[in-house]
Amino acid sequence: MRCAQCDINEAGAAEFLGVAVCAKCADALEVIEDVMRRLAPAAARSRRVAVDACSTLPHRSGETGDEADSQDDKHRRTRCPYMGARGMGMSHFHKRHRDFEVFDEIQLKVVPRYKTSELSGDEWRTSVRVTLSFKGAVVTTKCFGDMDSAIRMFGATTVTDQIPDIVRKLEETKCDQPGCSEDAVSRYRLKQQFSRNGHRLDPSDQYGTCYRQFCSRHLRRGDGGREDSDDNYEVLDSSGPDKSTNMEISPSAFGGQLR
Q1: Distance in angstroms (rounded) separating the CA atoms of residues 46 and 173
Q2: What is the edge-to-edge ordering of all strands in the sheet holding 123-134?
Q3: Where are the domains of the chain?
Q4: Residue 246: count of CB within 10 angstroms of its CB
Q5: DSSP string covering 24-93
Q6: What 3 state SS string does 133-188 have?
């Protein structure tokens, strides 16, 4: 049986709040509970909410607020501890962008090969290779007999219950802008968090502080969103929106100027 907290290691004899967990998670959760008991007595009365909303394991997916039961949104959040930003003692957790995708590039390609056989003879054959990538790195490949089969099975190819380890590793250093494969140069602390429906999440139900990170091109976030906007971010490192190198704009068909 797997650990109920990390879903990676085998659950041992340890238990936390009546749930079987591995020894590593049990130690981490006990430390969190002790810190919360000392710093915030009120949090101890709702420790189940606090434990569910927090994880010391890098890049554990999950969601809070009114999206807790959405399977699709479990891929929208990741937490990676970042301690001591600007002398702040509270842990910082890496939160995924709301438009995060496990695979941001998919390629279908016909691949020829020369088959040799003493029994059936030699001939050229083809197959279709489907390549799934994230941030410029190949995550996995699938092969099919022809393009029609590849397209018909396309949905099953992209479905995944767990985020691959290579994706989690890349998230630690890459820009959080979906579709961008550049390295991040600056971290932004989220002042407030919102659900995908635009509802502000109650700070009392959250533990620690969340941040996102962006490359030099995507430092400017704009003012059209609630959570992902310049006004909702505090710069943790030296580079802010004014240092953005983006030179590309795409005017809205309604709010912009048509040429």
Answers
A1: 34
A2: 105-115, 123-134, 137-144
A3: 1-52, 67-96+185-259, 105-159
A4: 12
A5: HHHHHHHHHHHHHHHH-HHHHTTHHHHHHT--SSTT-----GGGTT-SGGGGS-----B--GGG--S-EE
A6: EECCEEEEEEEECCHHHHHHCHHHHHCCCCCCHHHHHHHCCECCCCCCCCECCEEE
Pair 227, 199: CB distance under 8 Å: no
Here the tokens at position 82 are: 């970042």
| Chain position carrying tokens 């999950």 | 62
Distance CA(54)–CA(58), nearest Å, equals 11
pLDDT at residue 197, as a whole number: 83
CB 73 within 8 Å of CB 163: no
pLDDT value at residue 2? 63
Q: Do the beta carbons of residue 167 and residue 134 sit within 8 Å?
A: yes
Residues in the chain with pLDDT < 70? Answer: 1-19, 21, 23-91, 252-259
For residue 156, what pLDDT is reported? 76
DSSP string, 208-229: SEEEEEE-STT----SS-SSSS
Position 78 scores a pLDDT of 46
Rg (CA), the chain: 23
Question: Please, what sign has the CA dihedral across residues 48, 50, 56, 62?
Answer: positive
